[in-house]
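Mods, move this if it's the wrong board.
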Amino acid sequence: MAFTKIPAASQRLTEITSSGSWVAPAGVYSATVTCVGGGGGGGSAGEASSITTSSNAGGGGGGDVITRTISVTPSTTYTITIGAGGTGATTLTVSGGNGGTTTFANGATTLLSALGGGGGGSATTGGSVYNRLECANAGGNSRQNTTAAVYTGGGGGGSGSAAPTQNLNNAYHVNSGRDSSNSATSGPIYSAGSAGVLGYAGGGGGGYANSSAPTGDWSKGADGGGNGGVVIAAGTTANGSNATANTGGGGGGAANWTLAATGTGGNGGSGLVRIEYVA
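Not the wrong board. Structure tokens:
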């Protein structure tokens, strides 16, 4: 008698990085879907009438990271929209742009949705906060200095907690934008972006201006977030770095030290959808 060997089912992973669709394979009735929203753009930095020494912009906030196991129907086409990263600020009076929303839908019914992160504060603005019932991702605030002895960093963007909890909707709770020190002796110890979730959606680093080079994670982005601009000499400016695409990370904030030119914020990273299933 002949026997036919049936292959064992295995875990499959599909990562979708641009808007489009996914067709549930034959025999697949359940999938774990993770949506990552777009990251917020970093803020801009430069001289203004109220800023005579330095200004350091806040980093953009990371997007939402939301995961849920849902029922799917074989051969059904599901629509995916990937949230764009927020645009980095280019003027002192406007914060970085908010990131876009990432969704996983069946026709007109949205099954999973992840909002984008808030933009980082520019030289004359505060960081924006993107709120909803279960979470808030904030861009870091800017710091303006009018005394030559004080050089601080912009706040790092908020993102997913390092040890996230989940609510009933499986949305990860997140940190607000991290503030920065306002002391010439302690420096901008909180200008780093907040850590992300599952390796995604870290906050962008805040801008840094000081006669000494930054140490540790000062001004660094986290988990896809862009680094903040670094200035260590008067008369210079530095743009924030763009976040990595398809991570939902926030853009880095710019830095400026007594220069009329404006440093621009980095763009936030676009979002992502991960689909895991057994087939």
